[in-house]
Amino acid sequence: MTITDHAIAPQVGHLIDGQAVEPTNLRDHPDPGRLSTVAARVAIGTADDVDRAVRAAHAAFPAWRDRSPAERAALLMEASNVVAGSGEELAGLLVREHGGVLWEAQTDFMLGTGVLQHTASLVEEFFTTVELDDDQSYVRIEKAPRGVAAAIVPWNMPVVLTMMKLAPALATGNTLVLKPSPFASAALTMLLQKVAAVLPPGVLNVVIGDTEVGSALTSHPLVRKIGFTGGTATATHVMKSAADSVKNVTLELGGNDPAVVLDDADLELTLDRMLGGIYTRTGQICFAVKRVYVPRSQYDTFVDALCDRVANYRVGHGLDANATFGPLNNKAQFDRVTDLIAQTKSSGAKVVELGEKLDPSGWDDGYYVLPHVVRDTDHDSTITSCEQFGPVIPVVAYDDEAQALAWANDSDYGLGSSVWTSNPDRGLEFARKVEAGSTFINTHSFESLDLRMPFGGIKQSGIGREFGAAGMAEYVEEHSIRRLK
Ligand code: NAD
């Protein structure tokens, strides 16, 4: 194994009113790929820390709101340079606290940079004021920021998921208090300390912590907007808490994305492109491919070819250059995914374990799971109907296209989805009938993302959209003014 990047664990504290707070109440965060080592020591905040951060954001709001859209866009561009320039320094730490492989961490920084730049490029056009002037009246419709926004993010892609809230919130004149996940807060907070340095004090604040910090944010009377990404179960708490003071919420939640392979799909191309969508980030991506539907007549050919490819995967520490993917992020994740695999095995489905352990002697010192393919399983099995969030993929045979569509839509979730075909018209016709926030044709991975496409889910996958103008619209109110003549 060639891991050399095991630096001394940094100590990281909150960021309030432009100041890095001296870290106290520290918690050791183990490296999920080498549990016997500590990746970072992070401060765990309290409701008092949240209150100080929210008050700092509230004090900074009027001046930030009154900056012109062009000024805010220019500062976001500066922030994007900070993110782009920090990847090299911080991606290794992100690997050690998250578990994923290095290119995935670098992609997180790259996507985050792109979100900042794309949002900044749209701000001035977004703030175009509508004016209607006729014999009777003068009407003016303006967009106004909401005030203090709270962002709560998960651990799986912390940088880009943060920027998907930070960029639209700050671009539109809100100030922000962000809570990272305690499972990936060090590299993110260190990055945000650098970003905050190009902004006025109080515009961007960070309080690290658990549920106490999250609840204090969602219930704070001065918070007017919540941007949340995480699990659907947590989102129900966030919504209930926000309801008490009628806060606006944007929720980006879990998914159980179907990939439907039609009978005219090029199987080699489909597999080449779909594999990354299944196993990248060890399957811990909200819009990962989570269930595959294949025509019965092609089922064995498809699954055999899938298994042949997955057999080449090598699982190891994220800083091992030979690793295809790394360990799962945390113990709860590891227990949930390994229990699900055990339960699927006992259900009678054929569960195929593949791939190679890069460091067999260190295997039990991390949350490692080999890639699995579940064959001969049904649409209504547990593994097909839940969000597995791990490196295990069920493949289900279908008899006709109508059945495949019905099964694709038979879910409480509706985040991403894909259809695979060599006929563009057929693909588009099928895609339009899928119940999801996004449907991709012949792609379903990071490379499917296009910042011009609003991103979000329907049903229990969420409320609202991120990216671009749709993302900014979540952080403003329309203010209508009418003068009678
Ligand atoms: P999680 O719901 O456990 O935690 C998300 C965040 O909420 C964390 O910061 C957590 O500390 C915080 N939190 C927990 N309890 C809270 C409470 N009562 N009030 C306020 N905040 C609270 O999710 P996770 O395990 O960190 O992430 C995995 C989940 O996130 C998966 O379901 C995944 O699909 C989803 N996700 C969705 C998207 C998307 O864009 N739709 C993107 C990434 C991840």
Number of helices: 14
Q: What is the rounded Rg?
A: 23 Å
CATH topology grouping of the largest domain: Aldehyde Dehydrogenase, Chain A, domain 1
Number of strands: 23
Write down the overall mean pLDDT.
97
Structural notes for this entry:
With 485 residues, the chain is α/β, with parallel strands linked by helices. The N and C termini lie far apart (78 Å). It has 14 helices and 23 strands. Mean pLDDT is 97; it is low at 1-6. The chain has helices at 47-65, 69-98, 102-126, 158-171, 186-196, 211-219, 232-243, 267-279, 299-310, 331-346, 382-385, 401-409, 424-432, 468-473, and strands at 11-12, 15-16, 19-20, 26-31, 34-43, 130-133, 137-145, 148-152, 175-179, 204-206, 223-229, 248-252, 257-261, 289-295, 314-315, 350-353, 356-357, 372-375, 392-398, 418-420, 440-441, 462-463, 476-484. It has 2 domains: 11-253 and 462-484, Aldehyde Dehydrogenase, Chain A, domain 1; 257-450, Aldehyde Dehydrogenase, Chain A, domain 2. Helix 1 packs across helix 6 and helix 6 (211-219) runs parallel beside helix 7 (232-243). The longest helix is centred in the N-terminal third of the chain and has 30 residues, at 69-98. It has a 7-stranded mixed sheet with strand order 16-18-19-14-13-20-21, with helices on both faces. Helix 4 (158-171) links the parallel strand 8 (148-152) and strand 9. Helices cover 39% and strands 22% of the residues. Residues 152-156, 161, 179, 181-182, 210-211, 214-215, 218, 229-231, 234, 237-238, 252-255, 286, 387, 389, 415, 457, 462 line the site of nicotinamide-adenine-dinucleotide (NAD).
